[in-house]
Amino acid sequence: MARKPIEYIIKELYGRTYDLIIHNTKSRAILDGIGSYIPYVYNPLQEGSGETHSAEYCYSVWLKHLTLAMDSGMKHYPESVVELGPGASIGTGLAAVIAGASHYQALDVLDYTKKELNLKIFDGLLELFEKRQSIPELIEFPGHILTGDYLDRILDAARINEIRDSLIEEDEKFFSYSLLGEDANIIPANSIDFVFSHAVMEHVGDIGLFYSKMSKWLKSGGITSHQIDFECHNLAEKWNGHWTYSSVVWKLIQGRRKDVLNRHTHSDHVKSMQSANFAVVNEIKFEGEAGIQREELALRFKRMSDEDLRTKGSIILARKS
Length: 321
Fold this sequence. Notes:
Radius of gyration: 21 Å
Strand content: 15-25%
Strand order of the largest sheet: 3-2-1-4-5-7-6
Low-confidence stretches: none
Number of strands: 7
Oligomer: single chain
C-alpha cells in the first residue's frame, strides 16, 4: 500500500482548516511528529539521505575535513577512518580511500546506501582527484597535502582497480558499513586514526555517549572533526526558533523519528568532547542573522550564552589526549 503524506490525511479530515494548520511552521512540525506514529505515513528510510549523492559534494566534504585536520596537527594522511552518518552513499569514505586511506568504516542508524550510486560516485571522485580539481565556493584543492608525487603513487591503476573491485564485491577489504547498536564493540579500541561527521551530530540523542565512543576508538593523538548545524531544519519560523519550544511541544515534534534535532548548542558539544578525553584544537563558528530574542527562549535554554544563541553552525576538531 502506498504511503500517504501526513498533509494529505489532514486535508481529508479537516478540509479548509488544513490551510491554516499546514502553513503554520510550528503546527506543521507537530503534525509531522504525530504522523510518525501512523502506519503508511512514516517511512524511516526516507530520513538521512543528505547530499551525498553527488561526487563533487563528497569530494569537497572529505577534503575540507582532511585539510582542517592536517592544519590542526594531524601528522600524516589517516590510514583508518570512521564516519558517522554517511547518508545516501559512502561517497566521503570513497574519497578518503581513493586518496590514501587503507580502510573506511561507516556507521549509521539505517543503511540508506545503494551499490549503484556508490559506484557512480566512485568514478566521479576518481576523475576529480586525477584532475586535482578545486570546487568553486566549496574547496580549494589541498596540493600542499596531496602533492603531485603522492597522488601519482596513490592513484596507481592497480590500486584503484583493487578498490573498485572490492566495492563491487562488497568484501569489506577497504569499506565496512555497520548499524549503530548492532555491536557495541564493532570497532576495536585504539585502532582508528580519524573520526569525522558532517551535519550529523545535531541529530544524535546522547552526544556525550558518542564522543566517549569516538575517544575509545581513536588511537592516542587521533583526531576527530565534526561540522554541526544548529539551525532549526524548517521546524520553526526563524533559524533558531527550535530553542523556543517547550519540552512537551518538542516531544510532539520528535514523535518516533530518529533524525530530529537534539537542540544542543556549540558549547554543549565542546564540553562533551572535553569530558570524553578530547582536547579541542580548532573551532570555526558561523553566525546566524535575524534570529529569536533571548526572552523568547524556552525555560531549558534560558542560560544559553549570547554566542551560542547566535551560532548557527560550527566545525570542531579535537585530539584524543
